[in-house]
Amino acid sequence: MKKGQVYEGMIEKVEFPNKGLVWIAEEDRYVTVKNGIPGQKIRFVVNKFKRGNAEGRLLEVMEKSPLEKRDPVCSIFPACGGCMYQTMPYEEQLKMKAQQIKEIIDSAVKTEYEFEGIQASPKEFEYRNKMEFSFGDEYKDGPLSLGLHKKGSTYDVLTAGDCRLVHPDMNRILLCVLEYFKEKGAGYYKKMQHEGYLRHLLVRRGDTTGEILVNLVTTTQEEYDLQGLTEALLKLELDGTIVGILHILNDSLSDVVQSDETRILYGQDYFYEKIMGMEFKITPFSFFQPNSRGAEVLYNTVREYIGDIKDMTVFDLFSGTGTIAQVLAPVAKQVIGVEIVEEAVEAARENAKRNGLDNCRFIAGDVFKVLDEIEEKPDVIVLDPPRDGIHPKALPKILDYQVDKIVYISCKVTSLARDLEMMQGRGYEVVKCVGVDQFCETVHVETVALLTRK
């Protein structure tokens, strides 16, 4: 088998997060091909070898999978990289994700534990409260587009005017912004040449409140009068209400949404969302679970796993805007949250005050350093680290507290599995574990694990 060779085969299974396994009999080996569904017959080209394992790039789906029992729900599937499984019934998506989690945790856990399957998102569609759209073109030198990247492409952008992951309000806003800049003849920022104006459109919408924050991200290389855009957006017939329109200036060379300067074109630079009876103020870059109703399922699971914490001190490490801390605070003695993003910590403090919680404290800083400075000792620890898990220098410090109970929330189960090795080596065992699907139609899934000290 060589790079560049083309093969045909059936995807036997898909491993987390998106790795289809295709058996090639004549080569007596499996090839990993991304962006497929179990049961599809595909044609692919071998494009790399990693640690001796062959990887292929999907060229064509020759036959649909028997699992594909639904028609696509938007106009740009399957080319769009936003969705993967929308032609599979949701029950089948859940089964596949549960199996992926179980296989990874089974291989990482050294003792008996209870796998509790997977919990579904209350909403399968229109669940995202945040979407980051990119400006670009669908093909080289094509007309301006605004939406999501094609699968496997860092350049081609498909206009996502009927995306079903978001509320229709977001689609109406996207199409309004796109049409406005098409009429103006504005160009998008070209990453290789570092030239151009339009970068991203970041839209956030409260699922329960209907409050909408529109953030246009551009460079400073050109200037346009944005009053007309503001007026066009405010005239839209929406189910929700636009409470803020922001112009975010970003001259960074890297393709990330960040702010060198933020100008308020209309209203305010925040919106409110309600979860589990509490109200949270969310700013453009605040981390907040992107599926509000799914977050309630996740936080109820955490509360159930953590059990009775009356008269206990809880550490919420990697606490973001403090949602978990505030969910736990009413039933705990005190909760101390640690988060490296200063803006998120400020929002957490404000949200705790808004929700009448005086037993929450939030500290801005790196978990690795902050733990040396906190005088209190925790009785229970909640971990909700970034996708790549906990830094190997920070994890031993966390385990040094020798608390009886740890709840670990992971958005990448392979990172959790890696961290479990050290945790088990330091005397912890996994009691139970469950998947929580917050990202229907996509390859992503959350995992919650309860560990106790032997």
TrEMBL record:
Keyword Coiled coil in annotation: no
Active site (catalytic residues): 411
Superkingdom to which the source organism belongs: Bacteria
Record key words, sorted: Methyltransferase, S-adenosyl-L-methionine, Transferase
Binding site for S-adenosyl-L-methionine: 289, 318, 339, 384
GO-annotated biological processes: methylation; RNA processing
PANTHER family tied to this protein: RNA M5U METHYLTRANSFERASE, TRNA (URACIL(54)-C(5))-METHYLTRANSFERASE
Family membership: Belongs to the class I-like SAM-binding methyltransferase superfamily. RNA M5U methyltransferase family.
Record-given protein name: 23S rRNA (Uracil-5-)-methyltransferase RumA
Organism from which the protein derives: Faecalicatena orotica
Upper classification of the organism: Bacteria, Bacillati, Bacillota, Clostridia, Lachnospirales
